Every structure is written in C-alpha cells, then in structure tokens.
C-alpha cells in the first residue's frame, strides 16, 4: 500500500516539496534551539509553557475528533460515513504524531525523555497522558491498516478488529480528558482549575476536528477524483454546529462563574484575556477575534441555507477552526501563567525560531496526512477501476 | 552526598593502608587524626521536619538588605544573567502585598505593604511539584521533609513550575555556567534545560553547617530548625506570637513561616 504514496503528478510533488522545505527550515531552527536551549523561545520564568504546549493541546483535540466519524459508523451503523472514517482515522494518526513532536521540542533535556518510562510516576498526569496518546496512536494505526487492507482485497475486515475499534472510542475521549486533567488539577493556576475543562476540551475538539475534516473532503473533491458525497459532509456540518454551540455555552458558563463570584484570583486571568491587565493586552485582539468568529460561524451553521451552500459552509468551517485554534492554541495555555502566583504580569509571544519549529511540526503532520490520504484514495481508485 | 562519599573513601583508604602495613599503623592513624583535626568533622544536622521562620519586622527594619540572596546564590552557583527572562532565583525579595495577596487589605500598614519579604521554596509537606513530576526528579525526603531535586534525571518538562503555587522554581533556559560570577567548587553547577530551586542547603546540613542565608543574615531575621522538636528555636518563635504562611488554603502545608 505504501508505494501509492510515491506515485503522483506534478501538483502532488510540488506540494510535497513545499512541505519538505518547511520541515527542513523547522529542523534547522530546532538545531539552533538544541544548541542554545529553550531560551531561544519567548518563554520566561513567569510564563514557562507557550506556543509548543498550546499547539499540543489543540492537536490532541483534532486527534480525538476522529471519534465523531468512527462512533456513528461502527456503533450506530451510520453507513454514510463509510467512505470517510478512514480519513478521520488518518487525521488522528497525523495529529497524535504532531502532538508528540510538540512535546518533544518543548523538553529542556529531550534526550532524557525516556525517563518518563524508566522512572514511571503514576501520580503524575503526564505519565498517563503519554500512555493514552501512545495507545491511541497504536490503536489508530492498527485499525486503519487492517480496515484499509481488507477493503483493498474486497473482503470483510477480520472479526477481531471490531472490539479494537470499539475500544478506540472511549480511548479518544480519554486522550482529551487526560490532557485537560493535566491542567485542571493544579491549584496554583485558577484559570485552568475548573471541572468543566475536560468537557470544554471535548466540545471544542468535536467542532474543530470535524470542521477540518469537512475542509479536507472539499479539498479532495476539488483536486482529486474522490468525492465523499454531500450526505456525510452535511452530517459532519451538523456535528460541528452542535458541538460548537455547546463549546460556546461552556465558555459562557466559565465566564459567569469567574466574573459573578468576583474572586480576584479567578477574574484576573479573564481580565487579561479580554481587557488587558496592567496595560498588557497582547492577546486581547485575538480573543475578541475568536469570539466574533465563534458567533459568526454559529449564525452560518444554524441557518440551513448557509449550511447547505458549499461556499458559506467553507467560511463557517474556517471560522470554527480559527476560533478554536486561537482559544486553545494561543489563549488557553499562557493565560494560566498571567498573572503569575506572585501577581507579575509578564507577557509572552513566540519568537521566530519557535514559529519556524512549530511550522515544521505542522509540516510533518501535513506530509503524513497527504501521504496517508493518497494511499487511501489510491486503494479506492483501484477498486473502482 | 558526593562530599560524604569522598570523605568516606578517604577514611576507608587510610584504614586499609593501616591494616596492610602493621608497622606503619601508628604513624598513619596519627596522620589521619591530624588531618581530621584540621577540619573538625561536624556531625550532620538532622531533624524530623526542617522549617524556617522569617521575621518580617526585622527584614523591614533592615531596609533593602539582600545578604541572604547574595550568600545563597554565591554558594550554590546561581547564575546572574542580568535580565528577567532567563532569571534564576533561589531566595529573593518580593513586596509583602504580592507574597500575601490573600492578606492584602486597604488599610494595611503602609510600610508593611511594600516591604520586601524573602521568599524561597516552602518545602511543602504536601508538595504539588512532587505530585506532578513525571520522572521523580523532584521528590520529598521522608527523613526530614526537604523537597529535593535530581538535576540528572529532570527532563525539563516544567510541569513542576506550573504546579508550584509560589513561583519558587526556576528553569535553566540556557547554559548557566558562563554566567556564574564566582565559581564555588564545592557545589555542582547545572546544565541547561533543567529546573532548580532552594534545597534548604541539604549539602551544608550534611556537613553540619547552617543554611547559607541564615548564616549571612546579620539581623537574625531567618531562623531554621526542627519543627518536631518542642525545644527548637523555630518552635519557640512560633509559640511567641502569630505567624502566617503563604496561601494556606491550598493545603500544601508550606514550612516557611512568616512572623509579623
Ligand atoms: S514551594 Fe513550590 S517548589 Fe517548593 S515544595 Fe512547595 S510547591 Fe514545591
Ligand atoms: S521539569 Fe524536571 S523536576 Fe520539574 S516536573 Fe519536569 S522532570 Fe520533574
């Protein structure tokens, strides 16, 4: 099957070349970081986690969202998703690989990372996060390999794969839940210490991930001969709609609890995000942008006319994706550190090497997605021919 | 620990030699006795629960005294980068209103409000930094409650920094060695990419020496001792008047007390 990823036209190879260039640049930037240390990033004593960890958190959501196609297809026998479950699973594989790479580039002593297994500390949520992410990757690789292989031979997948698939459903929920627990169990950071963080993460995942999948389906329809069909795309759009609505609701619930109770420790973080604190307000325009995108996307999604039209659906999906990326990929992590426990308002912004490295990691993910989708589509094409 | 081992090896070596050459035994043991007399062996200082009491009034009276910080940072090879971004701190001053944000109220005595209060790792009895560390690099010594660090095992994930409610931990964003003003050969330097903090001078306690900060404080504002010993100085101070701890509501049980 793998050989299919190595065949393609000019446009395919052009795209691959672009990705390789981005990855190469990221790699060069990483070498510099490796030589100098994490001081090359915008992080400081007060804000110790930044862009890398935020991207990790966001991508865990994208990975978990595969469950939104796997679950209806396998558990409720929703046939329309038959053509795209494999796309969801491959998206999960690529996202988990990106998550792991982001964690890796964030380590102060990357060569020691095996210490997590050599000296396992089950009291630490990071241990469980490693287990759940690794397990999810293995599950999805096995499932997609076996089901696609069976499809290629035009036989039914072996029976033993079904329990594995069923297991992958709660497992997907677990990866984002454990990632939320990583944050929400810390008394030191009131911004994260909220019981609703895991549900919030899931709601945002189940909107941003399927939104991305819709965009991928539409891109494939445009540039390849693969057509997912309108029915699954519209079904995904409905999932995006409700998940996004729940996500917005959860955010409002958080705002209410923090602002109405008026406990300074809780309100100050939100104040920083939306109004600025001590004159520091780098995230403010982003967060308002995210809010506007969220509301705008909901208007487009709830209105059947705009949801059914491809052009407006694309806009809505981009808005959902961007809104949640800003929320998780920019706001959520650093704001836990602003203000610090000693009430210092130290701002953070990623540096150029940090951005290049991040782009490189995204490049790796896109390269994986491209290759994997190519394989899936080639198998389909062979069957059709 | 390494110092202990070195001393042990020295003594063990001398003993072997002495046993091996019977006739030279007397001379050698005399030698050994001489050399130990030059640096009298002090027994390690031990306690069931180490704790510190900081007398804020004395710090306030001392103005902008920084003796504790200077002494600690010198003996522990804490680098000085000269910029807040890379900064590493073990013990330092913060304004009272920030250290005790929960205790701040409008008519708090003006002088106190902005007074510099020394802060350091609280060696919490229930330390969140230990709970979150994925590799056991941060751990609590059961014998005396000191929260220790293993710089050779730390992967630099900085989870402990996120978990510490007191901002007590620093991270080596870059190689600290070129930024150490005066190298203290007795204490290890750190490599980049690991976390560090105050360790209650466990290396000095092992040699029977008091904490560097306590020793350096001319104003006797810092007192160190065994919390479990009713006759200790720290217990006497705590009996004498009211003392507060940082963010007690979090249940971390900090073992640095501040006397007002
Ligand atoms: S003060 Fe912070 S670093 Fe020190 S033991 Fe407590 S939680 Fe850990
Ligand atoms: S930075 Fe080091 S000490 Fe802190 S949690 Fe990670 S491994 Fe443990």
Descriptive account of the structure:
The complex is a heterodimer of chains A (385) and B (260). Chain A has 385 residues and is an all-alpha fold. Chain A contains 14 helices and no strands. Chain A is globular, with a radius of gyration of 21 Å. Chain B has helices at 2-20, 25-38, 56-61, 67-75, 96-99, 110-113, 128-132, 159-163, 202-205, 212-216, 233-240; strands at 50-55, 91-95, 116-120, 138-140, 147-149, 170-171, 195-196, 222-226, 243-244, 256-259. The model of chain B is unreliable at 1-37 (pLDDT under 50). The interface between A and B is large, with 43 and 48 residues. The complex binds iron/sulfur cluster (2 copies). One iron/sulfur cluster is lined by residues 132-135, 137-138, 154-160, 195 of chain B.
Features:
heterodimer; A: 385 residues; mainly alpha; B: 260 residues; alpha+beta; four-stranded mixed sheet; two-stranded antiparallel sheet; 10 strands; globular; disordered N terminus; binds iron/sulfur cluster
Describe the structure concisely.
By secondary structure, chain A is mainly alpha-helical. Chain A contains 14 helices and no strands.
Produce the secondary structure layout.
The complex is a heterodimer of chains A (385) and B (260).
Chain A: H1 10-36, H2 51-64, H3 67-75, H4 85-106, H5 115-118, H6 125-152, H7 161-184, H8 197-223, H9 230-261, H10 264-274, H11 284-302, H12 304-308, H13 310-335, H14 352-384
Chain B: H1 2-20, H2 25-38, E1 50-55, H3 56-61, H4 67-75, E2 91-95, H5 96-99, H6 110-113, E3 116-120, H7 128-132, E4 138-140, E5 147-149, H8 159-163, E6 170-171, E7 195-196, H9 202-205, H10 212-216, E8 222-226, H11 233-240, E9 243-244, E10 256-259
Parallel strand pairs in B: 1-10
Antiparallel strand pairs in B: 1-8, 2-3, 4-5, 6-7, 9-10
The complex binds iron/sulfur cluster (2 copies).
